[in-house]
Amino acid sequence: MKRETCSRAIKCSLRFALAYSLILIPMQSLFAVVPDPITAPFESDWRDYNFSYYHGSVGQVLMWKNTGLNQPAEQAKTRAETARILAQGKLPLFQMAWDGVTSTDPGQKEWCEWKQSRSRYWILDRFGKKPDDDYYTDAITAVMPYDSPDWPAGVINGTRNDWDLDKMLEFAKATGAVGYFAADKYDLGWAHYMRTAEYDFNPRIIDAFGARFNIVIPGGTVRERSDFIRNNCFNEWTDFICEGTAVRHTMLQPRLKAMGVNHPMVAFQVDYPVVTHRLKGLDYRMVAERAGWGEVLKRVELQGDGLRDLKPNCQACNDFGLFASLAPDMMFGAQMNADHEEFWNSVNRVFFNAGLRTEFGRKYLRQHWLSVGWWHIANLDGTVRRGVCEFMRHYWDGGTAPAEAVNLVRSHVPVRPFGFAFYYSRPVELIYEKKYPSTGRLYPMNDKAYAAQWSGLPVGYSVSDVALGGLTAHRASHPAAWLTTDVDKIPAGELAGLKAIAPVYDMNTADFDAIPSLIRFSPGACGYAFHDQNDKSVFLIWRQGRPPGTNDETRYGDRGMKCQLDFHGIKDGIYWVKDLFNPGTEWVIEISGGSGGFSFDLDRWDCRAFISNLMAPNVFALPGEFALAQNYPNPFNRETLIQFDVRERSRVTLKVYNVLGNPIATLKEVILERDRYSVRWDGKNGFGDPVPSGVYFSRLEAASLNNNTIKYGQTIKMVLLK
Question: pTM here?
């Protein structure tokens, strides 16, 4: 993974009433000032964005009226503000936001009056009524079909999405934007009510849904038709919701590409647990499927601020890791707390002991950045990467990132897991989703993940079913064990793939204290470990809040605790452990009989980070050469294991030949990444027929991807005895 420390800042402005605001700058001028670091998907291991609010006056376009775009005065405002920002090397994105109904802004007030007079477009609940939520009053969904009289002159009939996309492209052409940032209600594009699952059942939307999936929806009233959807085709309904949002967030990209924008960016926010993402109208896999690899910056809103409470220590990293694992081919960004007035407003609100607020806030910031920044996921090809590709700092005014945490995350890149992995199964999620309208229960991954961490198990690695195929052959990325839920609901083939990699534990029923683990922290001290790019082990440990599902504060209080880090199943020897926060502090630990450990102090809300030369027993350095090892056992009876190393990405062929030199079985014929692999031969030919006893040969060849030139070949002799 190429390391890069390029730092850029996003400046966006929040406006009202479907107003588009932009940092205006021609593309060629932008990249003359700020070289584009997105040269390949996830090639950079770090980019730090300062997401800020414009305090100056910027242009506003009232899209619903089709005005403002060509107004010289509005363009002049934008150009003037952009000129000021350009000198700082900012990225030109425009921001989309929806309105409320209380603004005194003339344009927004007029827009609200327009909506209030057109009830046929309103969001309706399953009873056919407007939601009694001011935030969504008069809101209109992304896929709402509009009538001709309500379209500006010259606009072809379509949906709200069509209208918005046309106007976004027009605006981008006029200003040279490289993408947009969606916030507030425009982010989701739908009104959803998780407490009762009352979605937008406007008759127009129901009709559009039925046409999309060719479903006849019986009933005459909104209640009758919505009940049919909820009871019979709720997964399809959620697909329909998510498609509308995915289209909105990705259709602009190919159009911007046609304008010459090489890496159009779409950034959007979310602030809810991963298990509710589809019910909120946002399916990351749908977005990733419609967008080019690495072209979507998905901002997961993790911060606390003047409006939001601080996230519990585990929630931020757990949510982020699970989000990113669902679509590992998409760039994910995290909006983080930073040293800023809004952050301290949140600290002051939830931490009443004024004498400890500053100490608590500093510790929380450090732990927040490290736990999110070091969380790792499995790519589609089975390799490991840091989940977060971008950081955007706290709220509208950026703030100062904790330098100590930033430097550590930059210096230690997760490349291999050391511990457990949370596993997210989409088929299981859909089972819960389908039953949700009647049960109100969702896939319990989030709550169970918290409980597992509280027990002292090391988990900082997330994998979803979309990456399971690539992970199967990539042994260096295998976790020590899987932690998941509802194992009985996982499809048989998927479960078999999991078990072929590592043991599987169901967090609904597992006794966490009885699960064997290479590493274990003291209960109440959560954390995880990984191997970095320098083949060193990194351990992150932090104090959790209250135990899962309780309000018991006696186990952590304000006092410190003596924390123990124990190792089991490690190769005997003498190892060193260094404190990353205090470089002069070092432990020498002896592993005897596979076990050992050390203790340290850990204050409430605090975290500790260590680095060591102690490695997991199943970890090996990535191969430096091609190699084919002798099969084992040899001679063999029923089957034998053949292991080989691949030095670099190559087209690999592994075949079995008889003594006449004729190929009888092909064991591998595929493109493989740099790694160590193993294949079993069961003594059968390519037709599945057993071969007789005798001498056989296995040959490994690695060819160049460019011209198929053989760059390595080796043969071993095998003896089959029956």
Answer: 0.76
